[in-house]
Design a protein that fits this description.
This protein is mostly beta strands and 134 residues long. It is built from no helices and eight strands.
C-alpha cells in the first residue's frame, strides 16, 4: 500500500550516451539533474540510469543518484524501474528506489522502500514523485 508522499522533483536531462548492447538489446545511459523536495527539505539530485529495450517494447532501467539537501543533508539511492514510450519522444517510468543516508534529518529514508513515477518529455525535461511503500 502506498504511504505518504515523501518527495517530488523537476529537472533536465544533462547527457546521454549509447552503451554496448547486451544480447542485442539497445542500451542508453542517461544523466539528469533535478531540484526536489524530500521530506520537506529543498534539495538537488544528480543521477544516472541505464535503460535497455526489452523484446516487448518496454524499457528496463536501473540507476543511482545522490541527493544534497539545502541544510547539508546528503543521501544516495539506487533504483530500478520499467518504462514505456508514451508518444512524441516522451517516456514514463514506474519503479522503486532505496535510500542510504547518515543525515539525522533524513534517517527515516534508510528504512523504507520508495515507489516512484518519473516522466521525461521530448525536450528532456523530467518530473516525478515518490511515495513510501508500506
Amino acid at each position: 500500500m502506498l504511504g505518504e508522499k515523501i518527495g517530488e522533483h523537476s529537472g533536465k536531462i544533462t547527457g546521454q550516451r549509447v552503451l554496448p548492447s547486451e544480447g542485442g538489446a539497445p542500451r542508453v545511459e542517461t544523466s539528469f539533474q533535478a531540484s526536489e523536495r524530500i521530506l520537506g527539505v529543498a534539495a538537488t539530485t544528480l543521477a544516472t540510469y541505464r535503460a535497455s529495450l526489452r523484446p516487448d517494447g518496454l524499457l528496463q532501467g536501473e540507476g543511482q543518484g545522490v541527493v544534497m539537501g539545502s541544510g547539508g543533508e546528503m543521501a544516495t539511492w539506487t533504483g530500478q524501474g520499467v518504462g514505456r514510450f508514451v508518444g512524441g519522444g516522451a517516456i514514463s517510468y514506474r519503479g522503486a528506489i532505496f535510500y542510504q543516508t547518515s543525515s539525522a534529518r533524513w534517517s527515516r529514508l534508510n528504512g523504507i522502500a520508495a515507489v516512484f513515477e518519473y516522466e521525461v518529455d521530448a525536450e528532456g525535461n523530467t518530473r516525478g514523485g515518490f511515495w513510501e511503500w508500506k
